[in-house]
Amino acid sequence: MEGRRTFKRTVGQTDSYNASYKHRDLGERLADRITAIPIAQNTPITSACGSLKTALQTHRKWICENATTPRLKPVIRCAVAGWISILFLLVSQLEEFMGQAGFLIMIAAFISPPSDSIAATVERELIILAFVSIAFGWNCLAMKVGSIARKAIVSLASTSDIYAGRYIEAVPSIICAVFLCVGSSSLLYFKARKGPGPYLFAAFLGCTCLDISLTVAPLFPYPYYSIALATFVPIAFHSAITIACSILIFPETVNTQFKTRLRSVLIPLVDAFEQQPELLSRSRVAPDFDVQPFTRLLAKSEAALVPLAASVRLINRDVSWGRFGADDLTKLHQTARRLTVRANGMAFFFKIMDPFSENFPSTPGASRAGSPAATPYQSRPPSPSPLHEGTPSSPKYPSSVSSRRRRHQRQHSFPYGRQNFLFHIALNHTQENAVGVFESQKYLNLESRFNHPENDYFADSAMNLLGTCSTDLLKSSADALRHVISWLEKADSNGLIGFQNRTPRESWEEAIQQNENAKMSLERTLRDFREKKRHLVLDLYRPAFESQQSTDAPPHRYLFQCFVYQYHIMQFAGQLCKMIEEIDRIEKIRRHPRLWFPTVSIRKTIFSMKWDRSEDPNEDGDEDPDMIPGIDLDVSEELGAARRRDPDALPPRHRLQAIGILMHYFIVGLGRGNTVFAIKAGVLTALLSLPSFLPNTARFAYVNRFVWAIFMGQLTLSRFRGDTAYELTSRLLATFLGGVVGMVMWYASTGAGQGNAFGLAAVSAVCFPFFFFIRLYAPGPPMSKIIFLFTTQLVVGFSWQDRHIPSLASPGAGYQVAWRRFVLVSAGVTAAFLFSFLPPSTTLRRYIRMTYATTVAEIGQLYCDILSHANAPTYPEVRDIANNLTAIRTKLNRSKILRKHVVYELSLQGRWPTERYDMILKVQLEIAYLLSHLKSVVEHLEPAWAKAFLRRTRFLESDFQGVVLAVISLVSTALRTGTPLPQITPCPLLDRFTSDKNGFNAFRHNAEGDYGLPRSLTIETLENEQYLCFSVGVATAFGIVTRLDKLMVATKELVGEQYHIHGVGRSRPGLPRVPTKG
């Protein structure tokens, strides 16, 4: 069937590998039958059926992918937990015990279902309980302080008088409002500070408890602690139910989850490697030469590393039964991460071989008035530019003398008044001139130098030879990956290996033999490739070297490019051998299952719950643009290390000055993004809760549940206007649909109109599996799905309470609850949307720009760390370079999700330059990967070859490193401040990088010192594996330098240029003059 995965099995493997895929047939057959239903023509229902069929076909992919037994187990577990939760509402004794806010148990059931492993669920629920407990204590404190401020305590007040607002006093209401404002601000600050993760829902539930309790407390003429307890008890019951269901119903340990997620990393790699031989056999200029399927599979594999890292974080806290413990499996995660990076190195080879993707930066679209308007003459058609013209990008800081002079001249050239002059200025901003002209001129010279009349022939010949020599290793690697995946699948069972028809000893011995066979087969193929087959690519150069006419050899870059692919495939196979060897080791020492306990202490577990990357990269939530999750920003304390200084103050000399500096940091911190957002959220909360504190509107606010508007306002308000605007539409749609579905559930179960416990339980039992399937697997923002689902439960829960626990403040049932819910949600989200425009206001446009500035700066730091490690391998690393590079890539990939909300921002600036930010994102991701490749290369170079590599690439020259770091600093600063870049910069760096024409040689013939390496190049030197690593390092450094040039041009395209010097840069005779204005 189309889209179904099929894998070849090696000898000795069983059918257990394909067991998980048999379950996909059920989902696919179901979807086929549904979408194949014949539709009668010319009938009243034709249109409706056609729309239904189209919708089913649209959602068929994600439904089929998740309609498997392993994926349905969490759905069943969550549905059972949700059904037990609704029983707490249906059983009158439990409902009365929970109190007026018993509906919170249903909200919490859909906000925090037991969909994760036991350890993750317990951790999340403990965090929720901690936050709700703090909110409970804060509520009680507010009520106590408010009661002290009351003029009189009336213990026997009637309920009607209380809800009529007759006991509301000014001072207790102000106290409750202040406590509500401060408490909500603190929780929402924590939410913004930590970002998406286990703290997100805990903060929201804590805000819910504050909203309900502190808006009701002023109504009572005495401290009404019961309402605070009523918000705590349902959530406590929810946590108990969730933890119990995660343990008792299809329990999933972190150990098992780790193996499942590791398979998700490896399975796309199998498909990717199976595509390689056919791809290498095609010409790079052929129409069917398409690398996108390969790169998409690699992206899918790396995306699976994010949830795998979340499992690794918790695996040491897991309690599980099985053969393998946390320490046994952790090493497999490190190896899997290296596999994905090495596979990306193979993709880098296709990028540099593709003539349409690896061209030098050409003159991009125009960006700023004042830049030269004409591009220099080109001797050939320009390279395809990813930067488009015509996007408005007016300069924000036209403060140069030349711009003032031009503005003065334009002002005197319009006799029709200032209005026409301003209109002309507005139009003039859309007429952007070219940027990067001088870089383009130099790149034209470089391209002419690197151009060869037989480029296509040499490139296709090299690729064909590469495909011929690599096919066996590619196939052997794919077979080894299938073996590892099969082992992971069999190791999921709690038995020895999972065989039921053999004795444990036979199963164990067979598993050991399979591991050894897989390892020996891959090692044999890798050894053959390393010693013989990889030399096949030298056939293109062998005649020239054997005749000692190396000057007649094809350009060295084709050999270096082939070496890039060979290096990464050898490293991939080597890491895969290590993985199988590790599997074989733990198989031999772990023959029998046992009970594994956490390997970290409780104290370390509590104090190590710091912010971590979310398991879901698509999860919505605020995130600090100045922080990269997973990176420790502490700097080295080594003498002479580069450190930041305060430009406005000297270091403190005594304790009083140190205390003053701390106070200064605290005051300055109040103006930072997260703090400002928290203050705005607190003010919004106070304004939305104002009707609950006024005697004339208190009853109306309580009866109509104004607390929904308060909570939705808090939930919708984000740090960035684009997120708030997007959430406005998504919350309204989700609430409307949730209200409709909730009414359907209620009226389908109500029977005679008063509500039927058995009917509601039956309807919920039918609906909840579908609800949680949508909650867990449907595409789209998680919060929108949550709003939709818990709106259905609010309608059902309040309707049930209205019919069985009637009160003076009952909102009604069914339709009455649904329309009140929709109206109040509309009020809350609209208030948050309007409030987001009030100063200080932050846009997603600025967030994306600041994020990219932060990642560029961190890339520069990691670049220095890698070169420090290459120059002094024994130098202690301050940072975990591999983890930090992964964190940067995760941060950049997450920005793709947030950028989708930019279109919802209302801005007077005009259209957002999407393509320009796309280019900056793309180049930064490529640099991050290349730095990973560079780190790998320097680790495999011997000291002499490492010194030669650093000299060849000029990485030891302070002059060259100075301009490289200057470019990184210029780009980061320009992105952070929006300041135009100088028209003349150190770029192109490639001109400096290739100033010495070394060719195949490791260094110049006249260079001092050869580190014991041969000065004359022979075919034996080319066959040396150290020369291969050296060549890969040079090619990787070349890629980093060219992408830094691209990053500079892309940033110029975004922020524009300044400091024009007329006549500079026309180095070639016959170049046309570069005109300027004014």
TrEMBL record:
The keyword Thylakoid does not apply. Residues 505-532 form a coiled coil. The chain crosses the membrane at residues 75-91, 97-114, 126-150, 170-190, 199-220, 226-250, 732-749, 755-774, 821-840. Residues 59-534 form the Putative ER transporter 6TM N-terminal domain. One of its GO terms (cellular component) is membrane. InterPro entries: ArAE_2_N (IPR018823), BRE4-related_DUF2421 (IPR018820), Memb_transporter_dom (IPR049453). Its main location: membrane. Keywords: Coiled coil, Membrane, Transmembrane, Transmembrane helix. Residues 361-411 are annotated as: Disordered. Residues 839-1059 form the DUF2421 domain. PANTHER family: ARAE_2_N DOMAIN-CONTAINING PROTEIN-RELATED (PTHR37994), ER TRANSPORTER 6TM N-TERMINAL DOMAIN-CONTAINING PROTEIN (PTHR37994:SF1). This is ER transporter 6TM N-terminal domain-containing protein.
